[in-house]
Specification:
It is a single chain. The protein is of the alpha/beta class. Helix content is 27%, strand content 26%. It is built from 7 helices and 19 strands. The strands form 5 sheets. Strands 1, 2, 5, 6, 7, 8 and 19 form a 7-stranded mixed β-sheet that branches. A 5-stranded parallel β-sheet has the order 10-17-11-12-13, covered by helices on one side. The longest helix has 32 residues. It is elongated and about 80 Å long. The protein binds NADPH dihydro-nicotinamide-adenine-dinucleotide phosphate (NDP). NADPH dihydro-nicotinamide-adenine-dinucleotide phosphate (NDP) binds next to helix 5.
Amino acid sequence: MEKHKCVIIGTGPAGYTAAIYAARANLKPVVYTGLEPGGQLTTTTDVENFPGYPDGIMGPEMMEDLKKQAERFGTDVRFGMVTKTELSEIPGEYHKLTIDETTTILARTVIIATGASAQYLGLESEKAFMGHGVSACAICDGFFFKGLNVVVVGGGDSAAEEATYLAKLCPKVTVLIRKDHWKASKIMEERVMKTPNIEVLFNTDTVEVVGEKTVTGVKVKNNQTGEEQTIPAEGFFVAIGHKPNTDIFKGQLDMDSTGYLITKPGTATTNLPGVFATGDAQDRIYRQAVTAAGSGCMGALEAERYLQEFEEEVEAAQIVG
Ligand code: NDP
C-alpha cells in the first residue's frame, strides 16, 4: 500500500496552493483532482480580482498555471476521486483513503480542499448560458454587467447580498423569490428593500433564461396567478445556496448543519490530528479564490509543522529506546 507524507484532496486554488507550499517543504504531496479538476474557477470566464493579474485571466487558464506551479516543485497530480476516508484519531498515525472505490493509500497528513458547489436551478437554458450571462457569484462576475440590467434568483442572505452588490453597478436589479417572504436576515432584507433600483418579485419561479449567444432576458411565472412575463436582463445570478463537498467526511470530522467543516479559529486544524481543512469546504462566508488560496497555504504550513513534531517524537523515542 502506498504511504505518503501529505495527500491533498481537491484542485481548486486551495488545493494547488497547499500543493505548492507542501512540495517546496519537501513533503512530496500527492494531489487528487476530483471530478472537476481545477474546481469552480474552471466554470467561470474572466477572473479580474485575483491579485497579480492586472489584465485579468480566464479561470481555466489560471487553474492550469496553478497546476504547473505545483508540479514544478514535484507535486504528483493524479486524476481521481477520493471516495472514502478512514481518518485516524491517533496523533502520528496514518489516515486511510480510498481512491475511485478501488485503491487504498495511506497518508500521514491530509489536506482537504474539496471546495463547495454552487446550487443551480437545473434548467437547460441556465446551463447553456453559463459564463455567458449566467453566474453564481456577483463579486466575481458583477463587474462584467456594469451598466446592464440583471436578475438575481434566491431569497436568502446570499441573494440579498448579491442584489445589493449588483445594485451599485447595474441600473436595475430584479430579485426572484419563490415564496411570499424572504429567508434572509431582517437587516439584509431591509437593505435590499430600501435600495431604489432593486425590484423584488415574490411568489415567482424562473421558467427559463432567454437569449441567443448571451442572455437577453429571464422568463418568469407567478406561482399564485400563473401569469408569465419576460424580464429584460443581460445577467442572471443564481444565489440559492452552496453545498460544501464534504459528504465523505460525515461522522469523522466536525461540520456545521450545512456540511461546512469546522476548523479551530484562525487555523486549518480540524478535530482530527493531521487532518487540515482549507478553502470553500470550510468557508461559508468569503468563498473567494484568493481566500481559498490563503487557507491552502495555512493547511500546508500546519501539515509541515505537524510532520516535524511527529518526526521529532519518533527520533526522541528511538534515542530513549
Ligand atoms: P439559503 O439556504 O439561506 O437560502 C437559499 C434561498 O434560495 C432561499 O430563499 C431558498 O428558497 C432559495 N432557493 C433554494 N432553491 C431554490 C430553487 N430551486 N428555486 C428558487 N429558489 C430557491 O442560502 P444562502 O446562500 O443565501 O445562505 C447560506 C448561509 O450563509 C446562510 O446561513 C446565510 O445566513 C449565510 N450567509 C451569510 C451572509 C452574511 O452574513 N453576510 C452572506 C451570505 C450567506 P426557500 O426559502 O423557498 O427555501
